[in-house]
Amino acid sequence: MLKNSSKSPEIPINQNNDDLSGKKVKILLVGYNGANNTGSEARLHAIIADLKEILGENVEITVPTLNQENLRRYLKETENIKIVPLPSIYFFTMRKLVKEHDIVILVEGSCYMDTWTSALLWAFLWATKCANDFKKSSLAYAVDAGKLSSLNKRLVKREASKTDLIITRNYKSREILKSTGVTAPIEVTADCAFELKLNPENYNFLKETWLEAENNLVGLSVVDFYLWPVVIRPWGRSEDQYKWPYYFSRSPERDHQSEALANSWAQMADHFIQKYQQNIALICMEDLDEPLARKILEKMQYPEKARIFSSNKYNASEMTVLLRNLNFLLTSRYHASVLSLSEKVPQVAIGHDTRLKNLYKEVGIYEDYFIDYDDPDLWQKVRNKAEELLKSPESIQNALKIGYDDQLKRAQKNKNLLKEFLKISLNRAGTL
User: Fold this and answer.
1) 221, 283 in Cβ contact below 8 A?
2) Domains along the sequence of the chain with CATH
3) Is the pTM of this model over 0.90?
4) Exposed, middle or buried: residue 354 (CB in 10 Å: 0-12, 13-18, 19+)?
5) 260: closest CA among 384, 353, 373?
6) 8 A C-beta contact, residue 143 and residue 166
7) pLDDT per residue over 397-425, tens digit each?
């Protein structure tokens, strides 16, 4: 399963020793941690739960982050879970952290792509390179691959090949990595978030938060496509700064496109209210979606029928309960679809990158219910598909059930692959 490593010779696994609990292992989880992103939060909780189940409560886990305050909002620091600040220029600190740990796990789903920013991709590749330099085992855990520039393809080919094991969450990502020239072993499963355990205290979240919308609610999971990618600059306008030296891509043309996008979302929301008497949940799966959601609300004719639900305020468990109680979901966010799928929520995607496209293809609804964000007939197609599903939700629900069952079954393989990886890694280190 693992690549032939120059770090140390392969040591046969003792097949009779399946119990890894109680082993003193220090694990570094490298990802998009602390970004107030529901998907990243859901994945982080699911991955920590997997590690604790396999290694016991005493496993030592370190989570580096660019934003400690945000991360502490949804991850409790304990004796064995440490939150460590990561500076914007992360190279030295990341290298030091890798050296201090036994195993490095890449936990960000959008791992091998530069759709959002090359800076994140480089952080993941740097962590992999450092692990290889220090002869530490490394794993990419249920991740995605997507668009890459020519430079980044070369970097991915060189550095990702040094990973002991890459687990992708769809078949297309494995195809992309192999075509890029990555030689590390690759397994295919599905996203960790399919196994997110909800907090029982949140089961009545929607009823307690917005009782009158409980049975007539449409969700709009929005993304401002015209902010991306984040680019590296020595300076820029403060309102465009993500975190120095990272700035959103802004221009007069992009600002105009963003305004037009908000207008179109607002018109769609009003249509659902007028024709179908639905309430509207403006869902921000990342707090960066909030400015667009506020613009939409300002432009609506019936703003009293809409509310903003943001990952900045609500945790992944609460947001998942909301998503699973929708009559219909119109989404530009991958994890909005993932976290709603168990309840067969009828949905249409407005896609910007490969993640939603690949998910919809694997679930079997791509041809009918995925629309590219730059389609010239986008909003007419969205309206037609939305009306079809609001009138006859059963037309998609069988496909959603089959797709969900398949995704969940595949996601459940993650833990077995993780356990096998840990056994081999600990054998290498002489811990078993």
Assistant:
1) yes
2) 26-196+410-428 (3.40.50.2000), 200-406 (3.40.50.2000)
3) yes
4) buried
5) 373
6) yes
7) 999 999 999 999 999 999 999 999 999 99
